[in-house]
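Appendix B. Raw example, untouched.
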Amino acid sequence: MPDGADASVRYTASLINLPPTLYILVSGDAAATVKDLLPEDPSIHYHTQPGQYFDYILDASGHQLIIRDRRTNDLVHGVAGTDEAAAKYIGGALAQIGKWETLAAMRNPATAIPQQNIQFGLQLMDEAGKWQDCTGHDITVDLTDARPEIPFRIQLRNQSQVEYHVALYHLSPAYSINKQSPDTDASVLRNGQPIALLCNPPKEPLTLMLANDDVNEETETFTLVYSLFPFQDYFVDESRELPRKIVTLDATRAKGIGGSKKSFRKDWDAQTLRIRIVRNGQQLEKGKAFDNGMIAIGTQTGFKAKVTVTPVSSNAKSLSPALELQSLFDSDAFTFLPVAVPTRGAPVHTVVELTGLKDEASLHEQPLELTVRQPVGEDEAVIAVTMQNGVVVPLGFLESDEQGGQRIMIHHAPGDVDPQRAAGKSPCGRCGSAC
């Protein structure tokens, strides 16, 4: 309340400005020129200061405008040219990304709707053809050579006696937005009466897969918006994908993205389901690193291997090297360092398995670099170890590099001595100050 205002008087106010949805670092030799050409959008803040926060990079160099991932610097989308038309196009693409990000993060913290009233989740079909429930809303699905595709369906049920109006959106990794639920009149979700969803076709189920052989990981996102009253779609238009390539303006007919038609005036809420799809058995070689967000493995030599992150299975018929290590380090002083997001929401110990090793001797000159992207306590130490012929073999200790990162340099990657044993499994153990 302003100073001097009468506390007994009831004032009204309206929101006239919102903070930006996206912060964009404009870089490159044409950054200053392009920044002035970008269309004004209150939801996007452009700047040219690398020291300031940013969500994405807009690389304005080489007569191209390229949107890059802030963490990996990978190409997200781009357009040829740096003139006003190209700047207008890329501004529209960034606005689409901003709307995608907004919908993915959409929540109503003040809602009075009990979350348990709506069952919203994922089911996967197992190898026996039976549907299995997944736990939680952040789920990792592992694809293998044996199962490169996994059928799925979205669970959406009303577990209360209250009717809800719902809208389900699929947010693709290429930032498209596609509505999966029926129009407003047919989108009333009642107890015991499921509604038809495009992602749940009546006959053959859709599958989770990685269509591009060069892509080892993607995340499919589904956002559910629900309300006690009818509402108009949060986004006026659905949007097409932004392909991971440089496009030309002549070849594009960009679809405009409108703002919201109408804000919610009644109680509502939203839930988001994120399905991370990971290809196991990824090829590791010079110029092609393994990176799952929690650890990264790279090589600068002729060393090659296939990398798989796998759980320490307790159902194995014989004692595997990983299980041997787990039993040896089963105490309060030791624990496995997580090397993957828990699959299907279940926290399990996981290990890194290297198979098909080639030119292992080259690591003596230039080691394998394993980067750890998770906090380690001041009183903790991390060591990579493996089992070879029943013996624990240390591979390297975690150390900080000059850029503040955490890396383990591995000069020796043991191969498969016995084909009946997974001797290449190398779990990372975390231990306390006693080590």
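End of appendix B.
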